[in-house]
Amino acid sequence: MELRARVRGHVRELTALLTAVSLALVFGAALGAVPRTVLPRAPDAVFAVIPHVNAVISTVAIVTILLGVRAIRAGNWRRHRAFMLASLVLFVAFLALYLYKVSVQGPAPFPGPDTVYRFVYLPTLAVHVVLAIVCLPLLYYVALLALTRSVAELRRTAHARFGRIAAALWLVSFVLGNVVYAMLYLVY
């Protein structure tokens, strides 16, 4: 049986598995569960540039998501698919860089005043993280549906309904991620 057909029959199960693995990687990295000696150590200049590269990736992803939404509203599913796949690739690149940096160096400390930390930074970070967590299974689900079905078949699935929710949450999460970046690396 070909891989596409296997995945097609198990979209929910694969969504759950991919979500669990992704969350385990993120929380494992953030909580220091990955031994820092296991990963190769890049030069400090690489670590210094990762947040800035990730901010650019996030910004480009915001644009590709918006263009993907615009394309599907115009009925152009080919452009929609291309933009949403580009968004997914950007997300994976962002996540790989983030996980590497956090696994080796730990989370970045907030350099600003304690009041801003408590009342602006932490709430913004919390909403960003919660949206990213909620968004993950939705993204996997709509992507797996799209990659395993024709356009005609896709119209008979929950792809559009969940896709609208996923795109909205994804956008807000990327925007808030850039706000967190600005507070960590530009404002303070």
TrEMBL record:
Q: GO molecular-function annotation terms?
A: cytochrome-c oxidase activity
Q: So where does this one cross the membrane?
A: 48-69, 81-100, 120-147, 168-187
Q: Which InterPro entries match?
A: Cyt_c_oxidase_su3_a-hlx (IPR013833), DUF420 (IPR007352)
* Organism this protein belongs to: Salinigranum rubrum
Domain of life of the organism encoding this protein: Archaea
Q: Which UniProt keywords apply?
A: Membrane, Transmembrane, Transmembrane helix
* Protein biosynthesis listed as a keyword: no
Keyword Hydrolase present in the record's keywords: the answer is no
- What Pfam families does this protein map onto? DUF420 (PF04238)
Instruction: From the Swiss-Prot or TrEMBL record, give the protein name.
Output: DUF420 domain-containing protein
One term under GO cellular component = membrane
Single GO BP term: respiratory electron transport chain
Matching Gene3D superfamilies = Cytochrome c oxidase, subunit III, four-helix bundle
